[in-house]
Design brief:
single chain, seven-stranded mixed β-sheet, five-stranded antiparallel β-sheet, 29 helices
Length: about 800
Amino acid sequence: IAQLIMAAPTLEAIRYSRGKLQLLDQLKLPTETVFMDVPDCDVCWTAIKDMNVRGAPAIAIAAALALAVELDGAKATLATAGDVCAFVATKMDHLNTSRPTAVNLGEAVERIKKLAASLDGSGADAVEAVIAECEGMLAADIANNRAIGSFGADALCAAVGKPAGAPIRVLTHCNTGSLATAGFGTALGVVRALRETDRLEHVYCNETRPYNQGARLTAYEIAFEKMPGTLICDSAAAALMAKGKVDAVVVGADRVADNGDTANKIGTYNLAVSAAYHDVPFFVAAPVSTLDPSTAKGADIVIEDRPATEITHSLGKRVAAEGIDVWNPSFDVTPAALIAGIITEKGVVRKTASGDFAVGKFVAEVTGSDAPAPKLSGPPGFVALDCDTVLDYCAAKPEVAAALGGAEGRAAWSSKEVGDGNINFVYIVSNGAGGAIIVKQGLPFVRVVGESWPLTQERVRYEAEALMIAHGYCPQHVPKVHLYDAPMSVIVMRYLEPPHIILRGGIIAGTVYPKLAAHVGEYLATTLFGSSALAIGCEALRKARQAFGQNEDMCALTEQVIFTEPYAKADNNHWTSPQLDDAAAALRTDSELKSAICSLKRRFACDGAALLHGDLHTGSIMCTESTTFVIDHEFAFYGPLGFDIGAFLANLFLAYFAQDGYEGDRSSQREWLLACVKETWATFERRFVQLWNERGVSAGNAGLTPAALYDAGAGAEGDAAAALRAHQAAYMREVLTDSFGYAGAKMTRRIVGIAHVADLESIKDQDARAKCERRALACGRRFMLEAKGLSIEDAVAMAEELRA
């Protein structure tokens, strides 16, 4: 190690001896040169996260050496190789969350963990083996960087096309020198190699906003070694190229995907675009450890966000206006098409005949082992999460990490996949100290079917916006959204802690929820009224519908599985067979029912009265005996009010008919469910009319009930109050009629369509289940055909009659 360090420049970012690690505090450069003591992995995690140490190679080496130091201090407590393995895994997993974009760090983590897991015998021997591996990374990095410099100097000169030996002018970005590595550097190492061989005329470095690594660090290295160099603003690079003062560009990388797309410090993409326009060759310099064949393309790389204060503040003082939003990604991705070559310590990765980079093939050839196959990916920016990667994702998002108590606690985090729906994956991420959040990710296909049934992930935007709108109307019954990440199709929201459970499970278990009906009635009234033209006026409603969109895919799915398939031959249909074969066949020949369902479909498609939940069933409600929260708004759309109301009532009726399939006396549960039906409607009707009276009679012509017609004080003639009451009664009658129709449609589809309900499916005895289902089908049919004449009391009596 000493011999290699002697060969490197005096400038160094890492000082290490057995049991002691110091890192140059790069936040204090160039005005102060201060080395930080790093006694353990926690201090190193903070140094990486806060960018006291930065540069992908240096981060990986700092993490490895911090582990070595902490292992050396803890060796007396680690009796066996198993103890060492557990210690290493815990520490390295935590360190890996400090900078998830940097592939070198992840590669080092896996390499060291793999070594530790392979060891057996005494703890002392295992400690020595791991420390030796960590120390070897330091020496190897310096040797690799010198090889990168040599290959890179030759590649740049060849690409420029000047006479052999002629000096060239190079532009670089961020810091990729001795301060970003163990020594010499990657991209700046190429510049050093050019200088050592008298082929460097001039080097330009970008300031690299917002953290100014170019101005503070690269300029510092250039001045320290007295290279011919000039510092420029990021925004001046294109102008410099236009003046013909740049022969080549070379930058570093934090991750190179299988196709050659490269993630590097923000601003690299801008530089590559400018270079392409001015016919300036653009190179990437990085060790093989930065190449990531398991990532198919740049869009699959998770880009971490940095704090807003890095842009809004300078030297501790605010320089941006209060109230302005900030977007501050750490990195961008340069498409492979803009890159001339990828310089590594094993040679230069060149483009194939098709114009791509075969990164995986190159890695396999130079390492002598098979490169991992690229992971399956979705649309640009989408990476499917799992129980491990969801933790890294949360640590990389400041607002999410804050909800978990801060990313420094990452080592104690855990996750569990709990989604029981048909569409999405849902993770509970816990911080180990009682705090937790929900991370919900939408896949590009129907989860219960697979990739053969694709779905747009735009539905996640609809869900996120609907959740936030509904929370604004009814915060006591809709959880708060912490983050919506469009490229990743992720929503992060409040975790509803135990004893909250999915309502359907509680009902099946026989639990009674005394406040459920009042809470759901309040939710329905406030969200449906608040988003309707009664509250906001016709013009505002039209604008809101246009801004929100149609949620086309989810509406089309609803139209297929609710309004069409149950009444036709369809592969998706299934039912309790052979017991219900006749009932399913009868649906396909029932002319009255076909007419009714098509009328309901027409109103579903054409009546955009308010913003609906779109799939309000007992599986999309979480509750306790005293609280109720509505979740899962992925089917949200502007539609008829009765669709949401009917969906909820349908699930209560389905649960009612299912009670006879369970063991024991369920009479009290049945009574409560029917009481819920009546109370839900009563609460909804009372609160909706109350809100209407308070806010629905509006000035001007925009509202549905303008004051000119219904307010005597505004000039309305006749008995304005009586006229308003009569109109409200007629309006609520229409809503109730629609509610019964949609309730019947929902009940039917849950018995013979693609997706059933656990209330009935959990009845093991098929004959008993079919008996319950047949009664529910009969009830659903009557609801659809007799909706216009039914009161809520009539509907309850009908259900009781059919069960008798």
